[in-house]
Each structure stands twice: as C-alpha cells, then as structure tokens.
C-alpha cells in the first residue's frame, strides 16, 4: 500500500519550509526577499519534478516511474500503483477475451461477429470452411458482399430474425446451411449450422412415409374393390368369386409381409449391441435356409449348390443373421430364370468368414447397384411385386451386416447374373475348440 498525502501533512511541510526562511529573513532584516527566494526555489524544484514525470510519461522507457522526492514521492508511487492495477486488469481482460474466443472456436457451428454496419469484426475457424471467408483478409468487409445470395442480403437487411434462414451453400455445393442472427449490444452475431444431414433425414422420413402409404394402399384398394362388389345386389358367378378370394388372400399376405419386414427393420435398428455376441451355428442355419430354398424353387428348378464349411461358426444375433442370409438366397431364386444356377458359399477366406450368393440370373444395371440397399428401392417395381418383394430385404441385410461389423458387396452384370457377398472379421469367428466343446456338451 502506498502512503496517501493529506492536507494537514502538506500544510505542515509548507510551514516547516517557510518558517525557518521567515526567521532568517527577520534576523537579516529582509524577510520578504528571503520568502521570495524560498518560494522561487520551491517553484523550480516542483517544476523539475513535474518535468521528470512528464518526461517519463512521454518516453515510458520503463514500467516503473522515476523515484520521486518529498510530496512527489507519493505522486510517483500512486501512479506506479495505478499503472500496476491497470496492467493486471488488462491481462485479466485479455485472458477473458481469449477464453471467450476459445469457447466460440469450440462451438460446432460457424460464428461471425458483425458491427452494426454488417462489416465483419471477428469469425471462428469453422466460418472459414463453411462460408469460405478468409481471415484476416475479410475483416472489415460487409458479410452480405461476401455471401452473394439475394435471399441472405434481404434477410439480414430486413432485420427480422425470429425465424432462421436456410440456404443452399454457394461455397460448397450440395450443402444446406441454417443462419441464425442475434443482435446484441452494438454488434450482431451470426451463427451458421450445416443442416445437410438433417435435411436428408427429413427427406428420407418423408419418402419413407410416402412409400409405406403407397405400398399399403395398393393391396387395400384391391381388397376394398372386391368387398364393395360383395356388397352389391348383382353377385358375380362363383368362378369370379374364387379368383377374387385368391387375389384378396394374396394382397393380405403382401400387406402382412410388408408389416413384418417393417417391424423387423425397426427392431434391428433399435436393437442393442449386447444381443449380438452369441455363438451361432451358421452351417445348421444354412441347412434350414437350403430346405426352404428348395421348396421355394420347385417351379423354377434351379441348380442350387451350397458350398458350406461345416466348422465355421460366428458370434452374432441368430434372427438377424438368418434374415440377412435368407434375403440374399431367396432374392437369387426370385431374380434368376428357370433352370438357372445359384451357388451359396460359406467358407474361410484368409482370416475372415466369407459368405456369397452367386446367380446367373437377370443381373442389375450399374446405375441401380448403389441404390439397392435404400428402403423400397426396386429395379423393376412390377416384377418385384409379382415375387412378393417389398424392396426392404436388402435394406434389412445392410443394417444387420453393419451391426455385425461387415458390409454388403454387390457385383452384377445385366443379363448375366449377380454376386452378393460379405465377410465377417476374424474376431467374430468362433474357435473350433469352442465349437467341439459345445457339441460334446449337447
Ligand atoms: P425385394 O423385396 O423387392 O426383392 P430387396 O431389397 O431384397 O427387395 O431387393 C431390391 C431390388 O434389388 C429387387 O427389387 C431387385 O430389383 C434387385 N435384386 C436383388 N437381388 C437380386 C438378384 N439376385 N438379381 C437381380 N436383381 C436383384
């Protein structure tokens, strides 16, 4: 703490200076001259101290002020403390600003701070990648001059920011950006979020609802039509009724299969990872699928070959794997002409467990291949409907495989046939010793 000079000390010091001068002046008979000389000397001394202070203030060569004497000692000391306090405050403020900027950098959105005239004051790094701003080149530029979208210029100049603005990014094509503008104090904060994924999900949800409604409406229209006919007085002949009954039954089965597949898809999506680590006897599972395939195959009489490694088991969820394997096998039966050849392979390949279904059937044109695992995607809707297909089978397979650390590979040549395959990593394979132990236990 520095000492404070009060009025009394000042007055005391003045008296201590002038009284001896006055006494000496009285003694020599020239009190006024002595007082004058004393005052003049005091004035010069004060001027000297003032000069030292102003010189230091102007030069500021050292942080500490020069050493003061007399009353000036307290003045210099006071300035030193003031200086010290200001420097501490400055440091605290810059730490605070740095912390706020770090915080703004950590936000997963682009942030741009504008002055009231819409010129850029500051922006975070994400704003550079999302909006294509350049820092510090664009500092002081108007944001509406850099984002050259009439919609954005209109939005920001209108000044009504209750609703966010959505824009297709002109900087990175295909991205949808959401702008939120928040005026505060004398500045405006613009927060920009990449909502491309959200938009895609929204679109997928809309497509999904539209597809489900469409898929259910078609069989319902058929059944309703026949039921309305039953209601009228003019009943059709029994032959027509038999056909109607068969069609209604087929349509009801279609709806039932669609609902079952939808439920299965949502069950797989919502299923937990823990249900995924039971040892599954895949060769036995493939035996059941082979029996089903052979009964499904009676009319088309395909050559069905199952090349199965009887010792190869994996861990997973049995229901899910059964639907993944059988979807591929039954698709091959549905989309291969009579007397075609279908080969199912379950073998070790390097250190992986490899599954494939190869057919010499219809094949698929290249432009469809990447879209086959989308829900309700079918190459030929009419054809798929006659086979009882809903377009959900491969979507289910894809989900199951993702949950089992695998992915579906499709290779196909139109008119020549297709191969659907996937491989499970070595950590999913059950060691042979474990399998033998299980068999001896059972
Ligand atoms: P679906 O229930 O219609 O069979 P999937 O999701 O199982 O639905 O299959 C999607 C589409 O992929 C089918 O409609 C069909 O056009 C095509 N497809 C699937 N497997 C084969 C295959 N082995 N050969 C030719 N096309 C196939």
Largest sheet: 5 strands, antiparallel
Helix content: 40-55%
Helix/strand order:
HHHEEHHHEEEHHEHEEHEEHHHEEH
* Average residue pLDDT: 89
Describe the structure.
This protein is α+β, with helices and mostly antiparallel strands and 442 residues long. The protein contains 14 helices and 12 strands. A hairpin with a 3-residue loop joins strand 11 (409-413) and strand 12. The radius of gyration is 44 Å and the shape is elongated. The relative contact order is 0.06. The site of adenosine-5'-diphosphate has 22 residues, from helix 10 and helix 13. Residues 327, 331-332, 335, 359, 361-362, 364, 372, 377-380, 384, 389-395, 418 line the site of adenosine-5'-diphosphate.
Briefly characterize the structure.
This protein is α+β, with helices and mostly antiparallel strands. It is 54% helix and 17% strand.
Task: Supply database-style keywords.
442 residues, alpha+beta, five-stranded antiparallel β-sheet, five-stranded mixed β-sheet, 14 helices, 12 strands, 17% strand, binds adenosine-5'-diphosphate
Spell out the blueprint of helices and strands.
Blueprint: H1 7-28, H2 31-59, H3 71-106, E1 110-115, E2 120-123, H4 125-131, H5 143-146, H6 150-158, E3 165-168, E4 176-184, E5 187-194, H7 196-231, H8 238-270, E6 278-280, H9 282-296, E7 303-308, E8 314-316, H10 318-334, E9 341-349, E10 352-359, H11 366-369, H12 381-386, H13 393-403, E11 409-413, E12 417-424, H14 432-441
Parallel strand pairs: 7-9
Antiparallel strand pairs: 1-2, 1-5, 3-4, 4-5, 6-8, 9-10, 10-12, 11-12
Helix pairs in contact: 1-2, 7-8, 8-13, 9-10, 10-13
The structure holds adenosine-5'-diphosphate.
């Amino acid at each position: 703490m520095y000492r404070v000079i009060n009025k009394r000390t000042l007055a005391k010091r003045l008296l201590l200076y002038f009284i001896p001068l006055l006494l000496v002046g009285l003694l020599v008979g020239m009190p006024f001259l002595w007082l004058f000389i004393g005052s003049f000397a005091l004035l010069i001394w004060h001027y000297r101290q003032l000069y030292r202070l102003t010189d230091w203030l102007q030069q500021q060569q050292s942080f500490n002020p020069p050493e003061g004497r007399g009353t000036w000692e307290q003045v210099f000391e006071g300035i030193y403390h003031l200086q010290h306090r200001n420097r501490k405050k400055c440091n605290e403020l810059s730490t605070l600003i740095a912390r706020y900027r770090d915080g703004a950098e950590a936000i997963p959105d682009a942030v741009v701070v504008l002055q009231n005239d819409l010129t850029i004051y500051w922006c975070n790094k994400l704003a550079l990648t999302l909006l294509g701003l350049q820092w510090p080149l664009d500092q002081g530029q108007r944001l509406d001059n850099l984002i050259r979208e009439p919609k954005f210029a209109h939005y920001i100049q209108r000044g009504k920011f209750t609703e966010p603005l959505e824009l297709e990014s002109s900087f990175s094509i295909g991205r949808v950006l959401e702008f939120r503008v928040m005026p505060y104090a004398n500045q405006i904060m613009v927060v920009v979020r990449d909502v491309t994924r959200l938009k895609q999900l929204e679109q997928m949800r809309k497509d999904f609802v539209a597809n489900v409604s469409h898929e259910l409406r078609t069989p319902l229209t058929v059944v309703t039509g026949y039921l309305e006919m039953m209601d009228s007085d003019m009943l059709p002949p029994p032959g027509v009724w038999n056909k109607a009954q068969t069609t209604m039954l087929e349509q009801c089965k279609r709806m039932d299969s669609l609902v079952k597949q939808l439920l299965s898809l949502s069950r797989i999506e919502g299923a937990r990872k823990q249900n995924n680590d039971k040892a599954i006897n895949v060769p036995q599972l493939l035996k059941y699928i082979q029996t089903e395939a052979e009964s499904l195959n009676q009319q088309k009489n395909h050559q069905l070959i199952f090349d199965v490694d009887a010792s190869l088991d994996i861990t997973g969820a049995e229901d899910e794997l059964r639907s993944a394997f059988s979807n591929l096998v039954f698709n091959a039966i549905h989309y291969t002409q009579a007397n075609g050849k279908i080969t199912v392979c379950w073998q070790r390949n390097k250190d992986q467990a490899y599954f494939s279904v190869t057919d010499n059937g219809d094949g698929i044109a290249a432009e469809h291949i990447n879209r086959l695992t989308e829900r309700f995607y079918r190459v030929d809707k009419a054809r798929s409907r006659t086979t009882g297909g809903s377009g959900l089978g491969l979507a289910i397979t894809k989900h199951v495989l993702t949950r089992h650390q695998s992915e579906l590979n499709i290779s196909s040549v139109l008119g020549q046939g297709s191969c659907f395959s996937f491989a499970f990593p070595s950590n999913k394979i059950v060691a042979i010793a474990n399998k033998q132990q299980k068999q001896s236990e059972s």
